[in-house]
Amino acid sequence: MTTYTPATEQECAEIIRSMNAETVRIEGGGTRLPLCGLASITSRFMTGITRHQPSDRTISARSGTTLAEIERHLRAADQRLAFEPTGAHAASTIGAVAAMNLSGSRRPFAGAARDALLGTRFVTGLGELITTGSGALKNVAGLDLTKIIAGSRGSLGLVTEVVFKVTPRPEAAETLAFSGLAAREFPEFAVRALLCGAPITGAVHLSASTAENMSLACKPVALLRLEGSQIAVTVGAAEIGGGVSKLPSYQAAALWKSISDGTCLNRAAVQWRVSLPPARGGVLATSLTSLGAKTVIDWRGGLIWAAHEDLNAVPKILALLDGTPGATARLVRGPGTAAPLRREPTGISQMTARLRQALDPKGLFDTRHLNFGVRV
Amino acid sequence: MTRNPEMKRLDVLEVLARVLPDRGLITSKTGLKPYESDGFQYASRAPLAVALPETTEQVQALMRVCHEFGIHVVPRGVGTNLTGATVPVRDCITVATSRMRAIGHFDAVNGTVRVQAGVRNIAVSDHVRKSGWFYAPDPSSRKTCTIGGNIATNSGGGSCLRYGVTANHVVAVNIVLADGGQIETSAAECECEGLDITGLICGSEGQIGIVTEATLRLVPVLPDTLSMMLAFDGIADAFATSEALLAHGIVPGQLDFLDNAAVRMCEAFVPSGYPQSSGGLLLIQLDGLSAEIEAQSKIITELANRPIKIETVRDPEAADALWRGREKVYGAARRKNAYVILDGAVPLSRLPSVLREIYDAAGRAKLDVAIVGHAGDGTIHAFVFHDTGNRSHAQKAEDCADAIRTACARAGGTISSEYGIGLQKRGVMEAQFSLTDIDVQRRCVAALQRGRSLNPGKVFPGGRLAAE
What is the C-alpha to C-alpha distance for residues A313 and B222, in angstroms, rounded to an integer? Predict the structure, then answer.
């Protein structure tokens, strides 16, 4: 099938304008979506940082710029993307980070990718080149389409440029480990720590088997990451107190990356990512563990990574996931039959369809990977 | 059969009275008077009636009636909007959510609270503070403005630097559409599946639907707070200092600047200890652990670029007194003269050059200007003064304000960072967006409106939706 490789946003708009009834898939670095027999447009040749004045606390870049390049550039200015982009592959692009709304462990404390996305340039299904948002840190002018472009997974348009908010890198970081804490107790434990004023930027819980895999302990472990000034981290750790051990910084950095990416569960036969209200995270993780799953609770309870080696356990786990109120689960690895039933709140699917009709009336952009209400 | 307009008017009022609670429909001339305008001084019109629902079901019922009769609807909180976004259009029903004041379930583990749209911003924090949480978005009208209005304009204030704007703190909304249908946008998940419709509704200025309830995300109250005032000879030194402290990794809860005209204006209204000779003043609130903010205040003192006065206060009452002048800036401006207030924002590095452009534009127009703003997010609140009751002078001030908004957009920023577009700025939308951008925004609003009758004539140049 044809792969279009525009080098500029104008080329991109021309290609889309010239299309009629064909379905096309939008790709960034090609690191996530499998080949699907469709024509594709890749943004990976639209590259380059277009503006980065460190004192603005923003960075603008063409969508095909790799995340690795962005992070290198920001590191040189002692800055970073606070939302901790996940799943970073060397070829992952900043456009894909925006389109997928990929946020890591810092998400409940520093906001999601969509919160840091200040503006975009994107091409609609009619080939219109659109600007959303602005280069300022705050903008409320007009209908802010930035909000729906973030996380739209290429279903509304092809993002050609993004503006992200950036923050200074913290002076100090510390990871505190609490052994033996049951998953069920974790959400309340994390809230107590948060409310004592410590600069927490990560709160996860590892089931015993996961902790053992990661050479941490043979029992469940809760981890709290503190980041900020040296004094805030030191005093914050003392405020939290408890029977705590501190992880060496080299171990902590690798560990947080593997948690945010979900790779800490190794390559199990089947793996899910479940988003839910934080207060319910402990109970669901406990139930999953009782079915033999390895679990990691992230986002202080709001995100669960679950993995299982035995495909025979899949039906029971799916029943659990499908029956948990407020939970939305996504299959990360495994056979299509292990995909949870994906739910869109009532009414939202209609609004989504209307927005797609407004932005892509010819239905060019592939949306099959977004199917709701079916096992994919 | 086409209804006689007068019959239609009487019919709709009769039917509306049936679906609303006692005293829930205002039709008298004197009763309508407060609803003719909002915080925007330059437009007013009486609505056909004002509906004051108390529940989502009542909003649904009245929207169905308006939809059936083809009546336009203008949503409203308590009318603190500064852009005319809640000014009635001809023969409309104004739906004021001010009686929807119930605070529902507060979840101390999830850090969320459910509220009706008419709950005042400050009431949310008052409700949850004893449990260690608060609601961070802080428009200057927070003591009176409603959550529904905040969501409609995606409003925010000085605390957005540290905590983000309204959209970052709304987990889900219940919204009633023009045809009376209602949608709950998410199931209070941390990360919803599908498009972020909640985020899109934030800032849509009541054109997609009427928000009746919302689940709000709260943030922890930090243990200690400290306020600082740093006065400088010139505004450039103030900006150099704010840039240095942000680069150092200090993220204050508030970081505001005042130029000399604003310092003098505020001091004349509420003496707060601001040196009248100061050409640039920074007001800073640090929130955090006691040891942390003590250390930060020392660092800021060291980083300050040629200060003429630094004052640090720990006592809450002294801190209130220090901030009082800044908080009363609108009153101070009103006492000085009539004004047009701006809310543009620019990339932080462009603050000094855009301020120079503002002074030049005001100088050319021979108008007084005073500027306060948020040095951490680039928001510029410029007061452009004109003589009360002098129409041509007022128009001159509006023209000058539009030139300033255009300068903000040209600098890579925005014509509005806090108040929204409403009636006031729709003519200058093209300074920030291309005609195609605007048309695509219109298409999306038209696609989401069921009935195309919600708050027409606002936001977009020309005032009509594409599909109308």
Answer: 44
